[in-house]
Design goal:
- By secondary structure, the chain is mainly alpha-helical.
- The chain contains 10 helices and 3 strands, in the order αααααααβααββα.
- The radius of gyration is 22 Å and the shape is globular.
- 21% of the residues are buried.
- 47% of the residues lie in helices and 5% in strands.
- The longest helix is centred in the middle third of the chain and has 16 residues.
- It has a 3-stranded antiparallel β-sheet, with no helix packed on it.
- Helix 2 runs parallel beside helix 4, helix 5 crosses helix 6 and helix 8 crosses helix 9.
- Strand 2 and strand 3 form a beta hairpin.
Length: 239
């Protein structure tokens, strides 16, 4: 069993739900193809799997599917939906940027880049939308305010909605937003090119007091960032 199995088992026990029995090979082969590469297995693939008598055949099939090109294609499509990879409205990333961003996402999946590194590169990105693909993460928002960026980051990577019942106090939300208050944007002489950069003089002000809000993680483990230090890196390390 894995760490995820342990967490799921504990939750089921808390809810007094009896886990389902191990599924049949016929059910497993259908589910694993749909989950991993988004398509049903061909008849000969089903027959091959059912005829396999090795004890580790399920693990072998998972590894086989993860190495197929369809895996990167299918999951790139899912990630590009989440990350709003779109040339025109509402993201307006523009074709050159979309091609670069798309290639980076697909290559990350093909090379089996760990998800923590994938997310870290997105959250700490700087540079040209054409030449630094992850920088498009910060260009896909119509509203580029710290609150909107923090809200999207929280929803994507923490599973919470800052505008809903997040369980966070206003102070915690402000501290989270402050991590994204030092992102700058500037255009170049190249058509539709935009540079995302760290602006050390950016700040988030408390609307009630006018005081600067220091970055702080919701659990209180990280609070404050030194001047000249990109708070996004601090947040990504914590995340």
């Amino acid at each position: 069993s894995s760490e995820i199995d342990r967490i799921v088992s504990e939750k089921l026990a808390d809810m007094r739900i009896r886990p389902s029995a191990r599924c049949s090979d016929e059910v497993f082969v259908r589910r694993v193809y749909l989950d991993a590469i988004g398509t049903l297995p061909k008849p000969w693939e089903v027959r091959r799997f059912l005829a396999d008598r090795r004890a580790d055949k399920r693990a072998r099939l998972v590894e086989e599917l993860l190495s197929r090109p369809e895996f990167a294609e299918y999951w790139a499509m899912k990630w590009e939906d989440l990350l709003r990879v779109k040339s025109e409205f509402p993201s307006n990333l523009w074709p050159n940027a979309v091609q670069s961003y798309d290639r980076w996402i697909r290559d990350s999946l093909r090379e089996n880049k760990p998800y923590d590194r994938f997310v870290h590169e997105l959250l700490t990105a700087n540079g040209s939308n054409f030449r630094a693909p992850p920088a498009n993460f910060y260009r896909a928002f119509q509203d580029r305010s710290p609150r909107q960026i923090a809200g999207n980051v929280a929803l994507l990577f923490m599973g919470i909605r800052l505008d809903g019942d997040s369980g966070l106090t206003d102070r915690q939300i402000q501290g989270l937003c402050a991590f994204f208050a030092q992102i700058g944007y500037k255009s170049t002489d190249e058509w539709k090119e935009e540079i995302v950069f760290f602006n050390p003089d950016g700040k988030l002000l408390d609307p009630a007091t006018g005081a600067q809000v220091p970055p702080a993680t919701p659990d209180g483990k990280v609070s404050g960032v030194q001047y000249g230090q990109d708070p996004r890196r601090v947040f990504a390390d914590w995340l």
